[in-house]
Amino acid sequence: MGFQAGQLFVNLPVNDLQASINFFTALGFGFNPQFTDENATCMILNDNTFVMLLTKEFFKTFVSKEIVDTSSHTEVIMAFSASSREEVNELVDKALAAGGKKYNDPIDHGFMYSWSFQDIDGHLWESVYMEEGTPEQA
Questions:
Q1: pTM of the model
Q2: Distance of alpha carbon 30 from the chain centroid
Q3: Do residues 77 and 68 make contact, with C-beta atoms less than 8 angstroms apart?
Q4: Long-range contacts, stretch 3-11, CB < 8 angstroms, 24+ apart
Q5: Which of 32, 70, 100, 103 is most buried by its number of CB atoms within 10 A?
Q6: Cα-flanking dihedrals φ and ψ of residue 78, to 5°?
Q7: 18-54: buried (b, 16+ CB within 10 Å) or exposed (e) per residue?
C-alpha cells in the first residue's frame, strides 16, 4: 500500500468568519480554540479530519490564484458519512434552518442515501448514509 495521510485539513475561504462559526455551530460542529483567531478557525469533523475556515483576506496569503466565486462555480463537494438516513436528513434540515441553501433533492439508491446543501458561503456539502455490507464497502 502506498502513502496514507494522517490528518486531513481542508481550507475554505469564508466571507464572514463569525457567521460561518455560527452556521456550523448550529449544525452541531465544534471548533478547536487553539487554532481560532480573527483570521481563522479549525472546525472539527472527527479525530482526523478538520476544516479550516479562513477569512478571504487571510486565505489569499496562501494562494496566487483567484478564489472561486461559489455563486457560479464549484470548487469541491465535501462529502462525509452519516450513521443513518435520519441523520442525513437532520443535518441538512439544520443547515437549511441556519441559513444554508438546498443544493439538490435527496438521492436514494436503496443501499445508499445522500442529500446536499450549500453553506452560507456557497460551498457544497453532502451527507451520505451507506448500509453496511454493501459491495462498495468491501
A1: 0.88
A2: 13
A3: no
A4: 6/48, 7/48, 7/49, 7/50, 8/48, 8/49, 8/50, 9/42, 9/50, 9/51, 9/52, 10/49, 10/50, 10/51, 10/52, 10/76, 10/78, 11/51, 11/52, 11/54, 11/59, 11/62
A5: 100
A6: -90, 110
A7: eebbebbeebeeebeeeebeeebbbbeeeeeebbbbb
CA angle 94, 99, 105 (to 5 degrees): 65
